[in-house]
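Posted in: Structural Biology > Protein-Ligand Complexes

Title: Requesting predicted complex, guanosine-5'-triphosphate in pocket

I'd be grateful if someone could produce the 3D structure tokens for the following input. Sequence and ligand are given below.
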Amino acid sequence: MGDLAQKPLLEKAPTTHAGLLAWVEEVAELTQPDRIYWVDGSEEENTRLTDELVAAGTLTRLNPELFPNSFAAFSDPADVARVEEQTFICSENKRDAGFTNNWMAPAEMKEKLRGLFSGSMRGRTMYVIPFVMGHLDAEDPKYGVEITDSAYVVASMRIMANIGTAVLDKMTETNAFFVPALHSLGAPLEAGQADVPWPCNPDKWIVHFPEERSIWSFGSGYGGNALLGKKCYALRIASVMARDEGWLAEHMLILKLTSPEKKKYYISAAFPSACGKTNLALLDPTIKGWEVETLGDDITWMRIGKEGELRATNPEAGLFGVAPGTGWGTNPNAMRAIAKGHSIFTNVALTDDGGVWWEGMTDEVPAHLTDWQGNSWTPDSDKPAAHPNSRFCTPISQIDMLAEEYYSPEGVELSAILFGGRRKTTVPLVTQARSWTNGIFMGSTLSSETTAAAAGQVGVLRRDPMAMLPFIGYDAGDYLKHWISVSGKANPERLPHIFLVNWFRRTADGGFAWPGFGDNARVLKWAIERIEGKADAIETPIGFVPAGHSLDLTGLDLTHAHVEDAVRVDREEWDAELASIEEWYAKFGDSLPEALRSELDALKERMADH
Ligand code: GTP
Ligand code: MN
Ligand code: MN
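-- Reply #1 --
Done. Output follows.
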């Protein structure tokens, strides 16, 4: 094993991958951990680590009769969400990070980070987690190695990705490239210093170096900031790999829809964080004869297949889902998966019998709980029991409705792509794009009111292109051009149809204009029937919306007039919307693809004639 293996810290290294050994050594020298531990991913190891986390007070073991082998974690109240203000894309040139990202020159940022990471693992264990995003037997497996000083991260990464010995062995055998992903809580322990249940640092930095494809994350233990295979790798870094290699890394769910005639359709959908991906992916249809199965709930990698078709895979192995609003009424499939155990919950409330609860889980609110901050809670309390961005982390294999195609490295051919956001007004329940490019226009102007999934104000309208605003690892205009150029290589006949959806429109009395959740199957049915040329639509300036009678309302207490209201294109609202899109596009400067500028001009003309 050469010189490196002689060093005491590395003598038990289970690999001869020279690049990996060199990096591990470099990080150990910088961060000064007490020990290095190579994660093998075994059950036995997981038991040991979670036992240690329970002893340390980081995890609370749940009642095994309710949730076997499951744990709750409670974060520092200042470490509950992704920190977009502190997320950086450090490309060599500022221009390549684009206007949607924070940027700092790589050399300057590295110097800053070296200062922060210097000695940051003192008194702690440095865990080395080999992982692969997507299939280990894919044509070109996407490897990563996360170094972290958090055992909570190890236990969570084990759910979210394929990790451990099998991955490391194949990486070593093929001397494969891997994304080095370095994470530290930034909370060194001095001799004799007592630990806290959730160590973290008020100074947080989530940094990506796109050219060298590396990640440095400091100060936060929260999933989106700390489980580096997920947002940091499978979206931000992967989006850059995808740009260079001719594919797409997207913030999308994938589902399989089977019609009463047993015809199969695969649909992906991009909605911003906390806008309904996990719920749609696990949909329980309320219409007879239509079946939904899941392939993914958050991240989709897409490439053009051999016949010019657009193929999609899910690179993740688990769900990291928003807990509040996930309930037996709204999402029974998620609830069944969670109830099988093997899950880690973060910032939910605890029931008195050792289970978990969050707003919306059950209709009946428990008489007494311990809230996410450890306080006694009753229904009279004025604060929610669970944090609005509390999460469940559960293996995807526990979903009963998981489609077998999830396990296929080739993925599935998409028939439709949905873009959607959270809009109280303006955007109809569903609109079919006029063409593929018109659909990209819809995606590029996607907008949503902000949620608790990211730190900052909630309910503010922002544009979120393809729901990727916080995750595009390069210039946003180049990203839109890349969408156009990748699809330019597809067989136009095989390109999916694009739809814009909005489950969150309100009526004049303030209620939701559409019941949502399982009833969204009715919208999927309409979309498929449009693709098959069977459903009626009304042409509006923005695209095709359902004719009142064309949406299946069987069993619903809704009239066609309701539907007409939910799909209304309001001239006044759209005048304001066009002005806002104009402002949004201005931010791209020269980088905006010409084809999209033309789409906007054409929309303005159609709207003027409306
Ligand atoms: P990330 O995992 O953060 O990327 O978010 P997500 O897109 O998976 O969001 P999720 O499915 O977890 O939904 C978040 C919130 O949206 C929850 O509070 C849900 O109750 C609510 N929601 C989801 N689908 C619907 C719907 O069809 N109608 C309404 N009204 N609310 C919905
Ligand atoms: Mn997400
Ligand atoms: Mn989700």
